[in-house]
Amino acid sequence: MSQQTVPTPSVRPKDGLLIAGILLIALNLRPALAAVGPLIGMIRDSTGLSNTMLGLLTTLPLLAFASISLVAPLVTRRYGIPGMLAAAMGLLTIGIAVRSIPAVFTLYIGTLLLGIAIAFGNVLLPGLVKQSFSKKFGLMTSMYSGAMGLGAAFAAGITVPLAEGLSWGWRGALAVWAALATMALLLWLPQLSRSKYVRPPGSYKQAMKALLASRLAWNVALFMGLQSLAYYVVLAWLPDMIQGRGEDAVFAGWMLSLSQATGVLGSLLTPLWAGKRPDQRSIIITLIALEVVALFGLIFPGIGPVQLWVAMIGFSLGGAFGLSLYLIVVRSSNTETATKLSGMAQAIGYSLAATGPFIAGSLFDLTANWNYVFVLLLGVAALKLYTGLGAARPEMVSLE
Asked: Which of 232, 298, 300, 316 has the highest CB neighbour number within 10 Å of its CB?
């Protein structure tokens, strides 16, 4: 299959402007979401919305990710990756701005718009990395997945100081991220004139049929999906889990920050490790082993410090995220395959992610014991091991 965008000689893997553009786009794919959680109390007090309605502020983007991820490759066939990434950054800017308008309905409209924009970025970056960094995509995947994690951690850390310390309020603290999206758009615009778009031949329907018939593609997709489910369960409930051990809210908050910090480290290091070998099964086993040991450490409080187990589970989940992005690229035969496989994997991933926190919360409501949720995560880890070992074999997904 032909690639979607054929770079001109001026576009090379070592092009600093291209790398900077990719990293700044990646940096934008989490702050608009990560900034919401710390502000939920302020939003509730200001709007009078119920917890159920506030939960939609997190669920809507995940649903947008799941639904748009399958559509994104089809739209990209018409306009190309560089053009769609520019459109995504423009839509992200608009969505953040609309979300900050003083009205409840715009809060949800803006959230939906930014969710659609981020979905395109999520899906298209692996294809772009495959296209532009065919010999160094391990390094590039490490860099951009790390940038995504840093964006989330940075937004979570400074949102409340912006809202309270600078008296911007919650709307101002959410609106500020439109500036970062605008910067990414402006930095990316030169790429539109530096690449010549060639629409790939063949039927999109037939290509997707071939992809859905591939066992390897399903293993890659399910590994990413199960990773996403575990990550969002931990993101949503880790503070409550820690408080269930008798710790206070401040300590629990620091533990969430620790898990995010070690997650960034995992997402940076794992693709680099994966890029040094054609077979990633040993990496899968290592990451799952770390996660399982950490979960047992959280189930049995007396066997070690909670900080160690939280750091381990954060590193494992972050590493699995970086590895899932790497597998999309390395298991694809060309750019078009990478884009479609990315769409399939992320559609499945975010569908599972949207259900994870709800299932975990319901399980705790039924049992009043977080250990049952840890057992659930152990089951997810076992499934990740099975699908991950299948995805890590040195094989290729082809649409031909």
From this structure: 316
| Residue with tokens 């409550």, as numbered in its chain | 240
Domain count, the chain: 2
- Residues 88, 191: contact at Cβ < 8 Å? no
Which residues form the domain of 355? 205-391
Predicted confidence at residue 272, as pLDDT, reads 92
What lies within 8 Å, CB to CB, of 146 at 6+ separation is: 264, 267, 268, 322
CATH number of the domain at 261, please: 1.20.1250.20
Cα separations in angstroms, 391 against 1, 31, 221: 22, 30, 9
Same domain, 221 and 154: no
| Contact assessment for residue 170 and residue 39, using Cβ atoms and an 8 Å cutoff | yes
Q: Is residue 269 part of a domain?
A: yes
Number of H helices, E strands in the chain: 17, 2
pLDDT tens digits for range 210-247? 888 899 999 999 999 999 999 988 887 888 888 888 88
Residue 359 CA to residue 365 CA, distance in Å, equals 10
Whole-prediction pTM value? Answer: 0.84
Q: Which amino acid would we find at residue 307?
A: Q
How crowded is residue 312: how many other Cβ atoms within 10 Å of its Cβ? Answer: 23
Nearest C-alpha neighbor of 262 from the set 222, 314, 227: 314
| Chain centroid, CA 99 distance in Å | 21
Residue 4: pLDDT above 50?
Answer: no
Angstrom distance (rounded) from CA 314 to CA 294: 9
Closest CA to 18 of 148, 186, 132: 132
Residues 330-353: tens digit of each pLDDT? 998 888 888 889 989 989 888 888
**Tokens in use for 224?**
């990413």
- Whole-angstrom distance, CA of residue 106 vs CA of residue 232: 25
Phi-psi region of 169 (alpha: psi -120 to 50; beta: other; left: phi over 0): left
Quickly tell me which residue has 């969505």 as its tokens: 95
Give CA–CA dist 384/106, Å, rounded. Answer: 38
Please say whether the beta carbons of 133 and 329 come within 8 A: no
- Same structural domain, 267 and 166: no
Distance CA 61, CA 350 (A): 9
The radius of gyration of the chain's CA atoms, rounded to the nearest angstrom, is 20
